[in-house]
């Protein structure tokens, strides 16, 4: 297990320290559950009351909350960022050895960089290029002509179809499929005629893709994901979509084909987007929203209805169904009022 001193941790996360920094840190935990060798953090005011009783060795806090701590404090403006950097430093996830497992298949035409790990029963197909310091997890498949940059991490049981391009430092989690066919069919008198999908999927540097995500290849042009994007579990991205740099998409969201999402957007969980629309930079869409048309101004957008008491919800639905009749009555009254005496 990784262990460091408080002073080293404070320097790494960019925090001021108000105590002796020689104490040794062996891990991170919540305010409620941390022990005397673990560091915690306060990023949500909901848990402020736990500061008084925590057993943590030290707490990462903002300057405003530092006075509430009787013990050690690591003080910085963004405690949650401090927690993220501390977690990176203390991460004890297993690091695979830079070896190719005997049960892996690597085509003779593939180009494999230095310090690459290829796990048991993984397949690297023809003309694949894998950059230095990358890892291909057990049971994963990298399709013909795909190209992976340096420091790419492919977790177990990932499928990359042919001609998928991943930039440097991309992470793809288990059971994700990248480059599957988009939903392209032509209707011929009720029968569906398959349209081959000949574009690629191109993913920018540093993007993190969760588990069980599906990203369809382009029908003609490429499907593209920008650099530094984060995509949560069970997200569906249709063919020819373009997702901008540093955009975040939360779990169970679905984006229909040929939709463009700008840079620095935040898409909440279970959001649905129509195809062939454009979302400008800096848009935040809250969970369970249905986006049916383009958005050209940054800001927060919502359409999902929060849950409420069933009786109140039923009354609301009934009133909604009465809006058509109410509109007609108001229109009739306005016409009556506007009639000459």
UniProtKB/TrEMBL annotation:
Keyword terms of this UniProt record: Acyltransferase, Lipid A biosynthesis, Lipid biosynthesis, Lipid metabolism, Repeat, Transferase
Tagged with keyword Cell inner membrane: no
NCBIfam families the UniProt entry points to: lipid_A_lpxD, PRK00892.1
Its job: Catalyzes the N-acylation of UDP-3-O-acylglucosamine using 3-hydroxyacyl-ACP as the acyl donor. Is involved in the biosynthesis of lipid A, a phosphorylated glycolipid that anchors the lipopolysaccharide to the outer membrane of the cell.
> What EC number(s) does this enzyme carry?
2.3.1.191
Cross-referenced InterPro entries:
Hexapep (IPR001451), LpxD (IPR007691), Trimer_LpxA-like_sf (IPR011004), UDP_GlcNAc_AcTrfase_non-rep (IPR020573)
Q: Which organism is it from?
A: Neiella holothuriorum
| Gene it is expressed from | lpxD
Please state every residue range assigned to the domain named UDP-3-O-[3-hydroxymyristoyl] glucosamine N-acyltransferase non-repeat region. Answer: 24-89
Metabolic or biological pathway, per its Swiss-Prot or TrEMBL entry? Bacterial outer membrane biogenesis; LPS lipid A biosynthesis
Signal peptide: which range, if any?
none
**Family per UniProt?**
Belongs to the transferase hexapeptide repeat family. LpxD subfamily.
Quaternary structure, per UniProt, is: Homotrimer.
* One GO MF term attached to the UniProt entry: UDP-3-O-[(3R)-3-hydroxyacyl]-glucosamine N-acyltransferase activity
Membrane keyword on record:
no
Instruction: List the active-site residues.
Output: 239
Q: Which reaction does it catalyse?
A: a UDP-3-O-[(3R)-3-hydroxyacyl]-alpha-D-glucosamine + a (3R)-hydroxyacyl-[ACP] = a UDP-2-N,3-O-bis[(3R)-3-hydroxyacyl]-alpha-D-glucosamine + holo-[ACP] + H(+)
Q: Which residues cross the membrane?
A: none
One Pfam annotation, family name? LpxD
Q: Report the protein name in the record.
A: UDP-3-O-acylglucosamine N-acyltransferase
